[in-house]
C-alpha cells in the first residue's frame, strides 16, 4: 500500500459515507487502526486524524484494508470520536474515585463508589459495543459483509501472531 493509494481510498470512502474530511493520516508500527478528533487551532471546527498500522495493512488484502478504513470513518461520521473523549474522562474520574474509596476500606463510601464504578463500566462497555456494531453496519455501504468479516478475523489473527513473536523475542 502506498500513501497515494491510501489517501485516494480515504477520500473516496469518506465521501461515500458522508464522513468529515480526514486532515491527517498517520502510518504507525501498531497492529491497529483508530480515528480521533481534536479542536482546531482557533477552536473553530475539528481536525480529524486517522492512524493505520502498517503491520495491519500488510496483513490485509486491499479490499479488507478498505473495510478497516470504512469502519474507522464510520466512527467519525457518527461522532464517536467526541463521545470517546467523554468516556475517557469518565473512566479517569472513576479511577480517582476508586483511589479515594481505597483510603476508606470496608466503609459505606467504598461500597457506594465500587457500585458506581461497576455500573459505569458496564454502561460504557455496552455503549462501546453499540458504537462498534453501528460502525460495522455503516461500513457495509462500502464493502460486503464477507469482506468485513474476513478483515476482522485476519486482523485478529495477525495481531495475536505479532504478540506471540514479540513475547518470544523478549523471553
According to DSSP, the number of beta strands is 3
Tell me the helix content: 55-70%
> What's the pLDDT, averaged over the residues?
86
Query: Over all CA atoms, what is the radius of gyration?
Result: 19 Å
What structural class is derived from the secondary structure elements?
A: mainly alpha
Shape: globular
The number of helical segments is: 6
Sheet with most strands: strand arrangement: 1-3-2
Low-confidence stretches: none
What's the helix-strand series? HEEEHHHHH
The first-to-last residue Cα distance is 32 Å
Largest beta-sheet characterization? 3 strands, mixed
Name the beta content range. Answer: 5-15%
In short:
By secondary structure, the protein is mainly alpha-helical. It has six helices and three strands, in the order H-E-E-E-H-H-H-H-H.
Structure description:
The protein is mostly helical and 171 residues long. It is built from six helices and three strands. The radius of gyration is 19 Å and the shape is globular. The mean pLDDT is 86.
Itemize the secondary structure elements and their pairings.
Blueprint: H1 3-17, E1 24-28, E2 33-39, E3 46-53, H2 54-59, H3 62-77, H4 80-102, H5 108-139, H6 145-169
Parallel strand pairs: 1-3
Antiparallel strand pairs: 2-3
Helix pairs in contact: 1-3, 3-5, 3-6, 4-5
Keywords summarizing the entry:
171 residues, mainly alpha, 3-stranded mixed sheet, 6 helices, 68% helix, 12% strand
Amino acid at each position: 500500500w502506498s500513501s497515494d493509494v491510501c489517501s485516494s481510498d480515504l477520500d473516496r470512502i469518506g465521501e461515500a459515507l458522508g464522513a468529515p474530511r480526514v486532515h491527517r493520516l498517520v502510518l504507525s508500527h501498531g497492529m491497529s487502526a483508530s480515528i480521533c478528533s481534536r479542536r482546531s487551532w482557533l477552536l473553530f471546527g475539528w481536525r480529524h486524524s486517522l492512524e493505520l498500522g502498517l503491520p495491519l495493512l500488510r496483513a490485509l488484502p486491499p479490499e479488507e484494508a478498505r473495510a478497516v478504513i470504512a469502519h474507522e470513518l464510520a466512527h467519525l461520521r457518527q461522532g464517536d470520536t467526541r463521545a470517546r473523549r467523554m468516556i475517557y474522562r469518565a473512566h479517569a474520574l472513576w479511577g480517582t474515585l476508586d483511589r479515594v474509596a481505597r483510603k476508606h476500606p470496608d466503609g459505606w463510601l467504598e461500597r457506594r463508589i465500587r457500585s458506581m464504578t461497576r455500573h459505569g463500566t458496564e454502561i460504557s462497555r455496552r455503549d462501546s459495543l453499540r458504537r462498534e456494531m453501528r460502525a460495522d453496519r455503516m461500513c457495509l455501504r462500502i464493502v460486503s459483509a464477507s469482506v468485513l468479516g474476513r478483515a476482522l478475523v485476519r486482523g485478529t489473527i495477525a495481531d495475536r501472531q505479532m504478540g506471540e513473536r514479540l513475547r518470544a523475542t523478549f523471553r
